[in-house]
Amino acid sequence: MVSIHVAYTQSINPAGASPVVTEAQVWKGLERKVRYAQEFVGAISSTDVLEERDGGKEVVRIAHFKPGYGGEKGSAKETVRSFEPTKVDFIRENGAVITNTISHGESLTDTDLNMTYTFEYRDIDPAKEVEMRKTYLEGAKSAVDSSIKAIREMVKDGRIK
């Protein structure tokens, strides 16, 4: 068995983006994503929060996937750890780790931001490594793009201030 590691980064506020969102707003979006992942990632149908620890900085949840996603079980139990204002780690029972990171761009301003999702999957059949790497990278791109879009929409409609 092999491990696969992929990452995808996208600018949060590319030229012409409206509204321009701040680091604090992006962080509020990631905090919401921990509890309502289905609002951010199209492959997820619902999220059940089982437990919160350390003032909500650690959440145990089950992410339920739409048909065709999430493997045989169709769900994943995760311990989610938040490190404000920079990253959230989603640690699955099977050892997989998904990290959502907010980083600053060259200007170091509050709105020159990037979103990176890093995926670490373990115990992959070596015969499927190339195929799965491509699938996971495409999934990372989709998840980053949809998360940024959702955060921007939530800023527009006032769910995120």
Automatic annotation (TrEMBL):
Organism superkingdom: Eukaryota
Tell me which Pfam families the record gives. AtaL
Q: InterPro entries from the entry?
A: AtaL, START-like_dom_sf
The entry's protein name is DUF1857-domain-containing protein
| Species this chain originates from | Viridothelium virens (Speckled blister lichen)
Organism phylogeny: Eukaryota, Fungi, Dikarya, Ascomycota, Pezizomycotina
